[in-house]
Design brief:
Layout: H1 5-36, H2 42-54, H3 58-68, H4 71-96, H5 100-132, H6 135-163, H7 169-191, H8 210-218, H9 221-239, H10 244-252, H11 256-283, H12 289-310, H13 319-345, H14 353-385, H15 389-414, H16 427-432
Helix pairs in contact: 1-2, 1-4, 1-5, 1-6, 1-7, 1-10, 1-11, 2-5, 2-14, 3-5, 4-5, 4-7, 6-11, 9-13, 9-14, 9-15, 10-11, 11-13, 12-13, 12-15, 14-15
Length: about 425
């Protein structure tokens, strides 16, 4: 027996819960450290980079869930670790204001726990989807769970943004406790009984050692060049993650609630961008994957240029609209890039689809951590030498736009303009399309 559409949507609720917790730690807590506490942006940048870096352990969690024959316990256990990490990160942020060393120590442990929780729960969830979904439904299942995650991020950011004003540490702790508790409870209800009703397909063991297979894939020109594209585009994609909300607070006088709601507007734009490509490319057959990837990169560059220019006008500028346009452009790029990964994974040496997707997933994780940390560090350096916050942030946004332009040029050389041929997806393909 395979997963029904209803069961797939239930599993999507877990992905939505995961996104709801993570957005609090990467956006709300980040903004509070930089604006309300006047800490260097490199500090939250380091913490978020730590959470991404630890997610390199995803293959280990997938292996454990494969060998154990019980993915449910890893999904629930991982979500418990993520919920505890999210609450601990909030406590650490509050402590930093009065007891810096203690607060920082708590925050480091918390973000490490967040990375482990995301890796264990997210990887095991996607492995269950990959092995228990009919091949003809796998692409749709991946899209459903991805969109539900984005919806969870946007909804949480919007609601928390409205509830957080006027800001106080006690209110912050109360809100985060409710969010993480609800996310854990929803996960337990969503996964309960599903795995017992489905029969997972057996997986073939690798015929060669991991490092040997990885060297073989790296020797393929298209796989190697696409890895470069993934790294460049993901660095550009994540550079704004830690600096956008502080930018809104310092330059446009946004309150903590308003800047958190800004993240909701951005992710709402991402959601709409993904739907646009899904309807246009899949339903209406408009444009190839190469067209949509390139268009998304170029539109993202334009949006970043607008956001940089708005910094010269200050309060009253239409920042929210520009950020929503950035999210819309990012959504177009992201979903088309995922489709391109699926297309390219089947090219080259056969039986190595998972290795290719794992290589690109590793590039994505490294780029996410490096991009956020580099963006935060670049802002700190620019503010040190430039008197205007708007100009300092604008320079970093323009650099990010330049990376998107370079990524668009690489995409034109690497991604085929031919329509994608549908085929079953491997577990590795799902693993790359995660946080």
């Amino acid at each position: 027996m395979k997963l029904s559409w209803f069961s797939i949507v239930r599993l999507g609720l877990i992905q939505m819960s995961l996104g709801a917790i993570v957005v609090l730690t990467t956006s709300t807590l980040n903004r509070l450290m930089v604006v309300e506490m006047a800490l260097p942006a490199i500090l939250p940048g380091f913490l978020v980079a730590l959470h991404y870096g630890i997610q390199i352990t995803r293959p280990n969690w997938g292996f454990l869930s494969d060998m154990g024959g019980n993915r449910t316990k890893w999904i629930i256990g991982g979500m418990a670790a993520l919920a505890l990490g999210g609450l601990a990160a909030t406590v650490g942020t509050v402590l930093i204001a009065g007891q810096f060393a203690l607060g920082l120590a708590v925050s480091i442990l918390a973000y490490a726990l967040i990375g482990l929780g995301v890796g264990a729960s997210g990887t095991s969830l996607l492995a269950l989807l990959a092995t228990a979904t009919e091949p003809r439904r796998r692409a749709a299942a991946a899209t459903i769970t991805w969109l539900m995650m984005i919806f969870g991020i946007a909804l949480t950011a919007t609601i928390v943004g409205k509830m957080l004003d006027p800001y106080s540490p006690a209110l912050l702790l109360k809100i985060v406790a409710v969010v993480v508790g609800a996310a854990f409870l929803l996960t337990c209800l969503a996964i309960w009984g599903i795995e017992r009703r489905v029969v997972a397909e057996p997986r073939d063991e690798a015929a060669v050692p991991f490092m040997t297979g990885l060297r073989e894939i790296w020797g393929e020109r298209d796989a190697r060049h696409f890895t470069i594209f993934v790294f460049l585009s993901m660095v550009a994609y994540f550079m704004q993650e830690l600096i956008l909300e502080p930018y809104a607070g310092l330059v446009f006088a946004f309150t903590p609630g308003e800047s958190t709601a800004l993240s909701g507007a951005q992710n709402g734009g991402v959601f709409m961008g993904m739907l646009t490509v899904g309807i246009a490319a899949t339903g209406l057959k408009i444009g190839s994957l190469r067209f949509w990837v390139t268009f998304g990169c170029l539109a993202s560059a334009v949006a970043l240029g607008i956001i940089a220019l708005l910094g010269q006008t200050g309060a009253g500028a239409p920042l929210s609209q520009a950020v929503m346009f950035l999210g819309f452009s990012n959504g177009i790029f992201a979903v088309a890039a995922i489709g391109s990964m699926m297309q390219l994974a089947g090219q080259g040496r056969t039986g190595r689809e998972g290795t290719r997707m794992g290589l690109w997933g590793a590039a994505q994780a490294i780029a996410a951590g490096f991009g956020g940390l580099f963006g935060a560090g670049a802002v700190d350096a620019a503010r040190l030498f430039i008197g205007s916050d708007g100009t300092a942030y604008g320079i970093v946004f323009l650099f990010e736009a330049a990376l998107f332009l370079i990524a668009a040029a690489v995409a034109l050389r690497v991604i085929s303009g031919k329509p994608r041929v549908e085929r079953p997806l491997t577990q590795g393909e799902f693993s790359c399309a995660t946080m």
